[in-house]
Amino acid sequence: MTTTGGMLATVAVALAALLPLASSQEAMMCPTWEENPWCPCYNNDYGIFMECPMVSLDMVSKVLGLVTNPIHSLSIYDLDPNVTTLPSEVFSQSAGVSQLQISHSNLQSLADGSFEGLEGSLEKLTIKHCKLNSIPQAPIFQLGRLTNLDFENNNITEIPSFAFSKLTLVSLNLKDNRINLVSDYAFDGLKESLEVINFNGNNLSQLPLSSLRKLTSLKNLQVAFNRIPDVHLDEHNGLPTLQYLDMSSNRIRKIKSSSLSGLPELVSLSLYMNSINSVARDAFSANPLLETLFFSHNNIRHLARETFKYTPKIKTIDLGNNNMQSILGGLFMLLRA
Ligand SMILES: *[C@@H]1O[C@H](CO)[C@@H](O)[C@H](O)[C@H]1NC(C)=O
Ligand SMILES: *[C@@H]1O[C@H](CO)[C@@H](O)[C@H](O)[C@H]1NC(C)=O
Ligand SMILES: *[C@@H]1O[C@H](CO)[C@@H](O)[C@H](O)[C@H]1NC(C)=O
Question: How far is the CA of 156 from the centre of ligand 3 (A)?
Fold first, then answer.
C-alpha cells in the first residue's frame, strides 16, 4: 500500500513538473485563447498549425502579429464573399508561414504586395475554390522559396509567357480551371525544377508541347478531362523524362506506331474514356518501362498478339468496357510468360 502510494506521489510530482513546461512552450508558440478566439491554433512536431474560418482579413493580420515563431500551416477559408481582391499587407506582421491555403472565397485577384512578409518562408501556396481569373504574377514573383503552387478550381483561362519565371516550382496544380491557351514560353524559368503538372479538367484542345518540351525534369503530366483529339508524342516531339501520363477523358481515336514513341521513360499511361478504336501493334515499341495501362471505356475491338511484346515490365492492363471482339489467346499467354 505504502509502496503504491509512494509511486503515485512520484508520478504526480513528475507530471506537475512536466505540465507547466508543456503549456509554457505552447504559449510561446500559439497565442492563448483569450488573445485569439478567432483562429484555432495548435502545435505539434511539425510546428504551428492555424485555421481562420470566416474571419476578416484585418483580424487574420492581427492574429498573425501575435505569433512570434513561423507558422507551418495557415489555412484561411470562407472569407466574406464581398472580398474579391486579397489586399496587401495581410501577412506583413507575420514571422513567416511555410504552407498557406486560402479556399472557398470570391477572390478574383491579388494585390501586388499581398504576400509581403512571406518572401523568405512560403514553400507551398494554395488558392483553391476561389475565382482567380489570371495567374497573379506580381505577388508570387516575390516568393523565392516557393516549390508547390496550387490554383485548383478557379477561373483561369490562360497561362501567359514567363508566368512563373522567377520561381523554382517543383509542382504546379491548375486542375479545374478553364485554360485553353498556354503560351510557348509559359514555363520558361522552370526548365530544371518542374516535375509535376496537373491540367486535369481544363479546356485544352491540344497538348501544349512547345512549352512542355523545355522542361528537363518533367515526370508527371495530367491532362485528363480536356478536349484533345490526338496524341503525337513521337521522337521529335517527345517528352523524354516523362514517367506518368494521364490523358483520360479526351477525344483520342487512334494510337499509332509513333504516337508514344517519344516517351522512353513512360511507366504509367491512362487513356480511359476516350474514343480509341485502334491501337497499332507496335504502339508501345519505344516504351520498355511501361507497367500500367488504363484503356477502359474506349472502342477497342481488337489488340494484336504482339502488342505487349515490347513491354516486359507490364503489370496491369485495364481493357474493361471496350468492344473487344477478339482478345487473341496468345496476348495474355505472352503476358504470363
Ligand atoms: C456585402 O456588400 C453588400 C452590398 O455592398 C452589403 O449589403 C453586405 O452587407 C456586405 N456583406 C458583408 C458580409 O459585409
Ligand atoms: C469567370 O470569368 C468570366 C470572364 O472570363 C466571367 O464571365 C465569369 O462570370 C467568371 N466565373 C465565375 C464563376 O466567376
Ligand atoms: C473552351 O474554349 C472554347 C474556345 O476554344 C470556348 O468557345 C468555350 O467557351 C470554352 N469553354 C469553357 C468552359 O470555358
Answer: 12
Question: Does 268 sit in the ligand 3 pocket, CB within 6 Å?
Answer: no
At residue 332, the pLDDT reads 57
| CA 176, chain centre distance (Å) | 12
Beta strands 71-77 and 47-53 are parallel
State how far the Cα of 1 lies from the Cα of 93, in Å rounded to an integer.
57
| Domain 31-155 indexed as CATH 2.70.98.40 | no
Please tell me the residue having the least CA distance from ligand 1 atom 3.
Answer: 82
Q: At a CB cut-off of 8 Å and minimum separation 6, what does 133 contact?
A: 108, 109, 154, 155, 156, 157
Q: Return the pLDDT at 331.
A: 57
pLDDT of residue 320: 86
Ligand 2 atom, smallest distance to 106 CA: 14
Q: Are strands 41-44 and 47-53 parallel, antiparallel or unpaired?
A: antiparallel
Q: Give the residue extent of every domain in the chain.
A: 31-155
At 27, list the grid cell: 504559449
Q: State the pLDDT at residue 304.
A: 87
Ligand at shortest distance from the CA of 81: 1
Atom of ligand 1 nearest to the CA of 82: 1
pLDDT of residue 23: 47
How far apart are the C-alpha atoms of 161 and 214, rounded to whole Å? 13
How far does the centroid of ligand 3 lie from the alpha carbon of residue 55, in Å? 35
Q: What is the pLDDT of residue 28?
A: 55
Ligand 3 in contact with 84 (CB < 6 A)? no
Compute mean pLDDT per 10 residues along the chain, 337 residues long, and list them: 41 43 55 92 91 96 94 96 96 96 97 95 98 96 96 98 95 98 96 97 97 97 98 95 98 97 98 96 97 95 89 92 68 49
Q: Name the residue with the closest Cα to ligand 3, atom 13.
A: 178
- Whether the CB of 178 sits within 6 Å of ligand 3: yes
